[in-house]
Amino acid sequence: MRYLLSHIGAMETFSRDGQIEDGYIAIDGNVITYVGKTKPEGKFDETIDCSNKIVLPGFVNTHHHFYQTLTRNVKSVQSAKLFDWLVALYEIWKNIDEEASYVSAAIAASEMALSGVTTSSDMLYLYPKNKNSIFDEEIRGVSHVGLRFHPTRGAMSMSKKDGGLPPDSVVQSEDEILSEYERTVSKYHDRSRYAMVRIALAPCSPFSVTESLMVKTLEFAQNHDVLIHTHLAETEDEEKFCIDKFGLRPVDYMEKIGWLNPRVWFAHTVHVNEADIEKMRKNDVGISHCPTSNMRLGSGIAPISKMEGLRISLGIDGSASNDTSNMILEARNAMLLQRVKYGANAISPKKALEMASIGGARVLRMDDYIGSIEAGKAADIIGFDMGKIEFAGGLDDPISAVLMCDAKSVDFNIVNGKFIVRDGHLNVPDIDYLVRKQNEISRKLIRGGI
């Protein structure tokens, strides 16, 4: 299909074109072919009047745990901090199966689509025995909705008996993990431009993975040219764990094992100092800032305002620690949380939107084809209807209104040239069934197993 988005009311491209009013975007198939203020020549299958729309590049979520949408708002851990929260929920998550993975991924992807996400990563790190295929089902669930996907094949190899946090039932041997790295990268990793699926590797955290696996993961990633990801410096408990077990603070531990390099991105980095930030900056490490989760679990405020020069993105994080999959809310909270600590001018709404879009593309090393609106990039574009009640009286700066006025959802979401959301409606025909199935699986899990 060839689409023309015409007379766009307000557009932020996050490219050299900057902000454009009364502009045009031409789409041919899955690629943007024109962006500008004058109407392009040529024939189009459909011309869409966007005179009352705010248009942005699609959002890029760089950290999540889709399966956790099954355990949102669990009463017993509503007020627990991270380690206690994990220990309790591991006992529920250990019963997840293939159907649970597929349905929860489709639900998470649908919710993200409504909040403007066009590309997402995910860290699936928990594998009950003989359940490696839950990774495949996650990819199938996201494909069903139509988002661009960069999942990470996560892993845990250090259980309670070895000094870690998770139970034995959800950890795997290093041999099995490395074998799964090979299988998933070989089967799913698409290196081509405009790829819809790419794979990264993600040993879960310093308190659930052996040093040996961290080193072997790095070696595998270097040999196969893929990215690597982990949680880092999320809580004070984690810092104490690293000092007690490794004799080093989290960032120093990463430095020791070679994990400060350009193919790495870390989730959280809440408890870091100036020396840590400089080490990460010097080694071109990416950051996934997860403000809602950090607030929800009382983990602290990441010093994002002090990280100038680093590749910074936003992560929704697990829906059991958020408890949504709402990227608009994530960007708004990123802006507001920094202002709580660093002042009213710490992060502008435009900066937060930049972190949510081109920032995420840079962290995932996909900014050659997503993250901004410009000719030659993938047609991943979102729009907001300025006629909605939340924008009433807030249109002096329409782009900033998306966050300042708390937009509720997108009017349209185009991924790879296809409408995933249009006129505010999600284009997933069986969404009602998926919601019912999600609730059914969730009830069984929380009550003691599938």
Write the layout of secondary structure elements.
Elements: E1 2-8, E2 10-12, E3 19-20, E4 23-28, E5 31-36, E6 46-49, E7 53-57, E8 59-61, H1 82-93, H2 98-114, E9 117-124, H3 134-145, E10 148-155, H4 174-188, E11 200-203, H5 211-224, E12 228-232, H6 236-246, H7 250-256, E13 264-268, H8 274-282, E14 286-289, H9 291-296, E15 311-314, H10 327-342, H11 349-363, E16 381-385, H12 398-404, E17 412-415, E18 418-422, E19 425-426, H13 431-446
Parallel strand pairs: 1-6, 2-7, 8-9, 9-10, 10-11, 12-13, 13-14, 14-15
Antiparallel strand pairs: 1-4, 2-3, 4-5, 7-16, 16-17, 17-18, 18-19
Helix pairs in contact: 2-3, 2-13, 4-5, 10-11, 11-12
Description:
This protein is of the alpha/beta class and 450 residues long. The protein is 35% helix and 20% strand. The protein has a seven-stranded mixed sheet with strand order 3-2-7-16-17-18-19, covered by helices on one side. A hairpin with a 2-residue loop joins strand 18 and strand 19. Helix 4 (174-188) runs parallel beside helix 5 (211-224) and helix 11 (349-363) packs across helix 12. The longest helix is centred in the N-terminal third of the chain and has 17 residues, at 98-114. The chain is globular, with a radius of gyration of 21 Å. The mean pLDDT is 97.
